[in-house]
Amino acid sequence: MLLEKARKIIGVILLVSLISIGFLKPVKEYIQLPKTVTIFESQTASLASAIPASADSHTEAFSIEQTDSEINLEGKKAGESNVVFEWGGLPLKKTEVRVIPDLKVIPGGQSIGVKLNTLGVLVVGHHQVNTQKGKQSPGELAGIEVGDIITEIDGTKIEKMNDVTPFIQSSGKTGKPLDLVIFRNGRSHKAKLYPLKDVNDEAYRIGLYIRDSAAGIGTMTFIEPNSKKYGALGHVISDMDTKKPIVVHDGEVMRSTVTSIEKGSNGNPGEKLARFSNDRVIVGDISRNSPFGIFGKLNQGMANGVSDQPLPVTLSYEVKEGPAKILTVVEDDKVEEFDVNIVSTIPQKFPATKGLVIKVTDKRLLDKTGGIVQGMSGSPIIQNGKVIGAVTHVFVNDPTSGYGVHIEWMLNEAGIELYDKEQKRAAS
Question: What are the backbone dihedrals phi and psi of residue 29, each rounded to the nearest 5 degrees, phi first?
């Protein structure tokens, strides 16, 4: 009995000791040390640690400086090396440090008009045709679903709605079915559709509502000054009827002018009301519509009048909670700077949306819009003179707050591959 009791007491003491060790500062620092760190050539990254550290002696990629409470790594030359952490002269852990070439982008903030042309024609609904046998939808009978994209009819590529009509009338008169190729959930499918005659006007119908384009407004996020590649919106454009992302064939970007603001309130997100600028000049194309926004190339400059010089960008792990600014338009086409606060930030190793939570603190913006409103998506977020991300979504029940996306994922979607650039340069 006594022996068993003693064992239990010793076990409790050991357990408490192990738990206590976990709260010791050196142990906590060791656990929190990252496996990898990525920095730009001319920027600095800091690690909170008092554990002695040193860099590989032969590295030219970065320099290291240690204080009592942190380690500062300054990027020097694209490449990779290690930081070794030691305790009592014994190596404890290695952190891989990747230094990538400098990258600067011009922040946006301009209000833009967007026109997307779909890949083929998009099916947005079914309708019933009044036939001699009653109401029927040929499209529904053929298994065509809302959200499908018709890309071919009888072996001919379909790009716009006007391409469809001649095939319908010809098929109706001959009685031969339409051989369709449809794009659904990333795959192509075949279907046969028999048009039916509408008794009201003697015309043949396919019983489908279709659309070949969509338009809207948003905000420019960044422009890469050398390639003229840009990113905007920060989120995917979905069709208003199907609620599915629009598969883009091509598209156009124009300037737009904000005409008024519907102020947001709890449970009712506000909205920028805007129109395409009178000149209707196309300033760029659209090649991609992804969860991180729209992307393409500009064919002319787009100054914002507030911050037109290229700024460094910040990787997700470097973003800090605290004050920041956004650039956006709330009146006409004037880009203005407004104060926000980074409430939370999630360091992300893989592309993901909603990496930031921001709160509008600027009284002027709150008075004008109530906070974040629709049409503000894509407004660049700037912290300490660096572009860190873009506004993406408003909180429905709190229009003063919303989500943001980290800038590095938008850069990747724009075809500005940070890490590929590093590898190519290191290999040359």
Answer: -65, -40
- Using CA atoms, how far residue 233 sits from 292, 327, 393, in Å, is 8, 13, 10
Residue 16: in which H helix or E strand, if any?
helix 2-22
In angstroms, the first-to-last Cα distance of the chain is 74
Q: Nearest CA to 295 among 353, 375, 386, 233? A: 233
**What is the reported pTM?**
0.81
Q: What residues contact 50, with CB distance under 8 A and at least 6 apart?
A: 25, 26, 29, 68, 69
**Pick from 107, 110, 113: which is nearest to 279 by CA?**
113
- Tens-digit pLDDT string for the chain (428 aa): 566 666 666 665 665 555 554 444 555 555 667 788 888 888 888 887 777 877 877 788 888 888 878 888 888 888 888 888 887 677 777 888 888 888 999 999 999 999 988 889 999 999 999 988 899 999 999 999 999 999 999 999 998 899 999 999 899 889 999 999 999 988 999 999 999 999 888 889 999 999 988 888 999 999 999 999 999 999 998 888 888 888 888 899 999 999 999 998 888 888 998 988 877 789 999 999 999 999 999 999 898 999 889 999 999 888 999 999 999 999 999 999 999 999 999 988 888 889 999 999 999 999 999 999 999 999 999 999 999 999 999 998 999 999 999 999 999 999 987 765 444 444 33
Identify which of 234, 269, 235 has the alpha carbon closest to the alpha carbon of residue 398: 269
Q: Which amino acid is at 169?
A: Q
Residues that are catalytic: 235, 362, 377
Tokens at 69, concatenated: 């409470």
Residue 36: which H helix or E strand, with range? strand 36-40
Q: Helix or strand or coil: residue 146?
A: coil
The CB density around residue 20, as the number of other CB atoms within 10 Å, is: 10
Which of left, alpha, beta for 234 (phi over 0: left; psi -120 to 50: alpha)? left
Residue 72: φ, ψ to 5°:
-105, 125
Question: Strands 149-153, 178-184: parallel, antiparallel or unpaired by DSSP?
Answer: antiparallel
| CA dist list (Å): 257 to 197, 215, 274 | 45, 14, 5
